[in-house]
Design brief:
It is a single chain. The chain has 282 residues and is an alpha/beta fold. It has seven helices and eleven strands. It has helices at residues 27-38, 49-63, 80-87, 99-112, 147-160, 174-181, 241-250, and strands at 70-74, 91-96, 116-120, 132-137, 161-172, 186-190, 200-209, 214-223, 229-237, 254-259, 273-279. Helix 1 (27-38) packs across helix 4. 37% of the residues are buried. It binds S-adenosylmethionine. S-adenosylmethionine binds at residues 21, 24, 45-46, 75-77, 80, 96-98, 101, 122-124, 138-139, 141.
């Protein structure tokens, strides 16, 4: 893209039409994103360690009743949850298409002697395996998939579970998605940031579409030297709590339970998310 493409873009983006995510799987981007996952200054790509410790504690003690099992983490990133769960005795598998995150997760597992296996694959097409005691997909990632892809992922998650196995979803609350879509456009400049290792400017704009109940966020990274533009778009689907329950029931899950957060109770620092737990029937 060139600068002239910006004023010529459609004012209103069509959901998922301009791309389906930021470039998590692109090698250089994934190296830069890994730094954000591991940063202890913010909770942007992954939460900070103290919060993950609290959440893993709830998953292990409450959700899994302190009994070890086999866990599949979809979109595991650098394995910050799987490595902690494996240290508690669970055997863990992670799938993610970020090459830098998978490399880091494998290294941590090797160095820690942890029972973790990682696959660098796309959740939209990967085989998830079978017989797991728990399958998890957290940090609102289900919402970035088109409803059909979300359905397909949930159906493969059902097949990956053992009978009575638990599905753990941490999803976006609907207001957080409409709020994001109604935020005004912003921009920032950086010498070396997430979208480029060269001096650049990032323009961000958001659009809430009431008809489809989606927010599309566009990012345009403008290279300062060449004025070349790289454009990315992410669309987030809003679901009400009742729609989450219906979606899981359509995918043959039973015993759907809702929780306010990944620590089981209201967590004001994580109010954009809620937790849905469901089971594959016996
Ligand atoms: C917000 S991060 C969360 C990472 C991890 N669950 C955590 O909380 O630390 C989302 C993760 O989902 C992964 N992801 C997104 N779409 C994916 C896809 N289609 N296939 C595989 N991984 C995907 C990204 O690479 C990224 O690691």
């Amino acid at each position: 893209m060139n600068l002239i493409d910006l004023p010529n873009r459609p004012v209103v983006p069509a959901p998922w039409a301009e791309g389906d995510n930021i470039p998590w799987s692109e090698p250089d981007f994934s190296e830069r994103m890994l730094k954000e996952h591991l940063s202890q200054e913010h909770d942007a790509a992954s939460r900070r360690a103290a919060k993950i410790d609290q959440q893993v504690n709830w998953i292990h003690n409450h959700l899994l009743g302190g009994r070890t099992t086999s866990v599949l983490d979809l979109g595991c990133g650098p394995g910050l949850y799987t490595s902690r769960l494996a240290a508690l005795g669970h055997s863990c598998t992670g799938i993610d298409f970020s090459p830098a995150s998978i490399r880091y997760a494998r290294k941590q597992a090797r160095q820690g002697g942890l029972h973790c296996t990682y696959y660098a694959e796309d959740l939209r097409s990967a085989y998830f395996g079978s017989g797991y005691g728990m399958v998890m997909l957290i940090y609102g990632e289900l919402n970035v998939f088109h409803t059909e892809a979300a359905h397909d992922i949930l159906q493969r998650a059902w097949q990956a579970l053992a009978p009575r196995g638990a599905l753990l979803l941490e999803v976006s609350v609907p207001d957080s998605i409409s709020y994001r879509g109604n935020r005004p456009p912003t921009w920032y400049s950086s010498q070396n940031g997430l979208f480029s290792s060269r001096p650049h400017i990032v323009l961000e704009e958001n659009h809430w579409d009431e008809a489809s109940r989606t927010t599309t966020t566009r990012y345009y990274a403008v290279d300062a030297a060449s004025a070349g533009v790289s454009g990315y778009a992410v669309t987030y689907q809003a679901y009400t709590p009742d729609e989450y329950v219906a979606l899981l029931q359509e995918c043959r899950f039973h015993d759907v339970m809702l929780y306010p957060s990944l620590i089981g109770v209201q967590d004001d620092s994580q109010s954009d998310y809620m937790v849905v737990v469901a089971r594959r029937p016996a």
